Each structure stands twice: as C-alpha cells, then as structure tokens.
C-alpha cells in the first residue's frame, strides 16, 4: 500500500509538471478562467440597453412628445425624428435602428377620447433586442395610459415587483457564473484525455504496460492531477474574477461548492476517458470534446429551460451530468444554499458520475 501511494504521488506530480510545461494548454487555461469569463459576463447582456430607435411623429403635440420622452436611457437611445416611410425602410435595412415609433396625426385628440393608436415597426433580424424592445415598449405604453386615465375611485395601479436572489436582475451575474461552469466542463473533457493522449503520442503507453504501475493507477493519477488544476483555477476565478473584477456577489460557501465540483469532476472525467480511448492524437481530442460538450450543454438547461424542450429531450436531460451540476452550483453560488438543500442534485450527480466514471475507466483500460 505504501508503494502504491509513493508511485501515485510521483505520477500526480509528473502530470502537474507536464501541464505547466505544456505552454499551449497553460495559456488556454489562463485565458479561459480569466478573460473568457470576463468577456462573457460583460459582453453578453440579457437586458435591453442603448436600443437605438427613431420616432415618426405626425402629430407633434405635447402628448405625443411626452410619450416619446418616456423612452429614456439606459434602456433606449433616441436617435431623432424622421418624416417619411422611405426613411424607415432604409434605417431598418441598414440596421441603424431596432425600432421606429409611429405616432399618427390626431393622436392627442383621439388619445383624450380613449381611441388613440400607436404604431411600432421593429427590426426582427435582431431577434433578442427586438423582443425585449417590444416588451419594454408595451410596459411604457401601459404606464403612460394609466397615468392619464386612472381607474376611477382606485387611482393608478402600479404592480410591485420583488426579486429573490438576484435583486438587481443583473445578467452579468448569471452569464459570469454560467460561463465559469461551462469552462469547467470543457476543461474536464479536454485535460484528462489530453494527458493520456500525450503518452500515446510519445510512445510511453507500451512502457507503462510492462512497468509496475497498473493501468488504473496510471489513469487515476491523470484524473486527479488535472482535477487539482481545474479546482485551483475555479477557486481563483471565483475569488479574483467573479468577486474581485466583476463584483458579482457570491453568497454560497466556497468549500461546499468545491466539494460539489469534485463530484462533478469524476463524472466529467469518465466522459474524458471515453474520448481518450477513441482518440489517437490531440486534434481528435479537441474535436470529440466539442462533440460531447454541445449535447450536454443543450440538455443541461443553461441555454434553454428544460421545461421548454420537447418531452424526449426533457427525459434525456437526466443523463447530462451538467444539468445536476448547474442546478446545484446556482443554488450554492447565487441562492446561498448548503449541500443539504440541493441533495437531489448532489445525489443525481453522484449516481450518474459513478456510472460514467466506472464505464469510462473500464473502456479506457481495455484500449490501453
């Protein structure tokens, strides 16, 4: 037993040194856990911001100007008034505006009689911005009407909104943490398999077969060493990128999140061993990693809510270890829950991870 631990410790140390010496993977890891997460959190917004729009005001009265004035920054960016329909077509074709508000002649007169009409021409090519613009504009129009025609005896009705967990409704928090979890998954697929493939490319597999080191010791050392790298990068990214640079408020216990991530490590490492068993070089590792990553991302619910998927995909989502990891990770990091409150995700990840890791290690041992 003592000899086993000595050999295992040497193998793990060897893998850590090889990772540091592999400049390509090292630079990729530094970029992914720093700049990539920063760009995803700050460059991708799920809220409307600085949406360019024009107004075609055929009425030019105090009421029409008051209505157009309601579209304020930072959500909207008023570009000016236009006169004819040809300008509208050109602006939308050239993507110089997300929408054009059309206020017809006689709007103030009709509005005071409760019969006013408004037009809104939206650039549907920018699907996310156009959807958000129409939703925001509908709310502004509703509020504008209620300000002028409150219900008699009741007054203006204003719905009160309360947000739990992400009180600022910041997409930066969601995108930053979501990108971190995606990067963790990607590296768990690439690093263990690439460490094994390097031995194949250098012709060291044959020497390992005849050496005192058994196959499972060799494979476990690869997984453990790369898991150490990923866990350290994850903790660094949370402390210095998410909390330090981006200012994201991480509520949960970092030790509990690290332990939960450790369970996910073995689940994803099982998939990595499948990739290593099939691949013959690093190019195939990268290609197969993307091929495996995309389906489990789709089935995890990070891109599309699982409830919105077809029934077949909803059932298949239970086979994605990333589904349990994302649900549990958001519960810890954003909601501040402890492991006892996410025991279903923990248990699902543990069972699925054990099955995937066992199958992956067995399949790889047959191919080495």
Could you walk me through the main structural features you see in this protein, from its secondary elements to its overall organization?
The chain is mostly helical and 368 residues long. The protein has 2 domains: 2-44 and 169-367, no CATH class; 51-148, abc type-2 transporter like domain (abc type-2 transporter like fold, 3-Layer(aba) Sandwich), CATH 3.40.1710.10. The protein contains 14 helices and 4 strands. It has helices spanning 2-21, 23-43, 62-69, 85-93, 107-112, 127-148, 171-201, 205-210, 215-245, 254-278, 282-298, 311-316, 321-333, 343-367; strands at residues 51-57, 76-81, 99-103, 119-122. Strands 2-1-3-4 form a 4-stranded mixed beta sheet, covered by helices on one side. Helix 10 (254-278) crosses helix 11 (282-298).
Architecture blueprint of SSEs:
Blueprint lengths: L1 H20 L1 H21 L7 E7 L4 H8 L6 E6 L3 H9 L5 E5 L3 H6 L6 E4 L4 H22 L22 H31 L3 H6 L4 H31 L8 H25 L3 H17 L12 H6 L4 H13 L9 H25 L1
Parallel strand pairs: 1-2, 1-3
Antiparallel strand pairs: 3-4
**Spatial arrangement of strands, main beta sheet:** 2-1-3-4
Mean pLDDT: 79
Number of folding domains?
2
Strand runs, count: 4
The helix fraction, in percent, is 55-70%
Structural class: mainly alpha
Instruction: Please report the number of helical segments.
Output: 14
Oligomer: single chain
- Show unreliable segments: 152-159
Overall shape: elongated
Distance between the termini: 24 Å
Strand content is 5-15%
Radius of gyration: 28 Å
> Main sheet?
4 strands, mixed
Report the order of strands and helices. Answer: HHEHEHEHEHHHHHHHHH
């Amino acid at each position: 037993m003592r000899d086993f631990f000595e050999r295992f410790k040497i193998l793990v140390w060897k893998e850590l040194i090889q990772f540091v010496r592999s400049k390509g993977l090292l630079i990729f890891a530094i970029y992914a856990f720093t700049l990539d997460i920063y760009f995803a959190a700050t460059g991708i917004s799920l809220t409307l911001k600085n949406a360019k729009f024009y107004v075609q005001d055929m009425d030019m009265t105090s009421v029409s100007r008051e209505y157009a004035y309601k579209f304020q920054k930072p959500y909207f960016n008023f570009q000016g008034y236009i006169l004819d329909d040809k300008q509208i077509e050109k602006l939308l074709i050239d993507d110089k505006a997300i929408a054009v508000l059309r206020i017809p002649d006689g709007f103030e007169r009709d509005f005071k009689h409760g019969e006013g009409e408004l037009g809104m021409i939206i650039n549907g090519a920018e699907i996310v911005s156009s959807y958000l613009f129409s939703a925001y504009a509908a709310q502004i129009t509703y509020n504008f009407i209620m300000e002028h025609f409150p219900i008699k005896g009741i007054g203006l009705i204003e719905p009160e909104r309360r947000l739990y967990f992400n009180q600022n409704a910041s997409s930066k928090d969601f995108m930053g943490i979501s990108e971190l979890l995606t990067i963790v998954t990607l590296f768990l697929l690439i690093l263990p398999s690439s460490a094994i493939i390097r031995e194949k490319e250098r012709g060291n597999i044959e020497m390992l077969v005849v050496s005192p080191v058994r196959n499972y010791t060799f494979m476990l050392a690869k997984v453990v060493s790369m898991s150490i790298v990923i866990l350290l990068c994850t903790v660094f990214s949370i402390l210095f990128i998410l909390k330090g640079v981006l200012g994201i408020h991480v509520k949960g216990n970092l030790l509990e999140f690290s332990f939960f991530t450790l369970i996910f490590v073995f689940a994803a490492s099982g998939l990595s061993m499948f990739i290593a068993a099939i691949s013959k070089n690093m190019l195939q590792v990268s290609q197969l990693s993307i091929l495996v990553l995309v389906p489990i991302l789709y089935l995890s619910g990070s891109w599309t809510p699982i409830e919105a998927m077809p029934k077949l995909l909803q059932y298949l989502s239970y086979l994605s270890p990333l589904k349990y990891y994302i649900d549990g990770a958001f519960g810890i990091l954003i909601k501040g829950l402890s492991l006892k409150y996410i025991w279903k995700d923990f248990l699902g990840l543990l069972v699925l991870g054990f099955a995937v890791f066992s199958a992956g290690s067995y399949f790889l041992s047959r191919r080495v």
